Amino acid sequence: MTSHSKECQGGLAPCGEYQDNPKRRAILEAAARLFLERGFTATSMDAIAEAAPVSKPTLYSHFKDKGDLFGAVINGRCCSLMKSLYEHVNAEESIETSLRAIAESFFDLIYAAEAISLYRIIISELNQFPMLGQTLYSEGPTKILCLLSAFFAQQNEKGVLSLDDPEMAARLFLSMLKGDYHMQCLLGIKQSISPEERARIIDAAIPLFIAGYRNRTKS
To answer: What residues are annotated to bind DNA (predicted)?
Structure first.
């Protein structure tokens, strides 16, 4: 039986709202820059409006408060990966090709210097602002998980994969890619992941995943 969490019942949709409005885009870029420079606590909505630059009424017409804006920044940073996932849902290509493209986009996202910095900011401010953790998880990992789950469900329906639980398969695939390198980068043990390490992980994870989930009844 296919299992879906409550968060993943909204279906699959492309990510495109972030770049449609020039003022919204300017606000998001200014907010991201200030959050990275000052942290969440020290960044005010007044400062974001000034940096964008937009009026405060314009700022609040797009975002109800600083938490809402922070969530949009996280969501926007995940947009490229979500677009990549969406593009591969109906693509006429092999599962190996799709998974490799998805993996490359995932690495681009989670190992970006900005992404590592945002993770550190959130962790440092969780005691004072516990909602930041939920915001990050809801606007980033949850949406990526749902899109990948939908992709695997479609591969299951096509008979390419044999999955009882597409969402669990998505969790396992992302976990294989992430490994312990991401934690090392968050802790400053590693500055970044090398191209050789990245390639080695992808080359190992994809065949292992497919070997575990390939539909062996399909000729």
So the answer is: 44-63
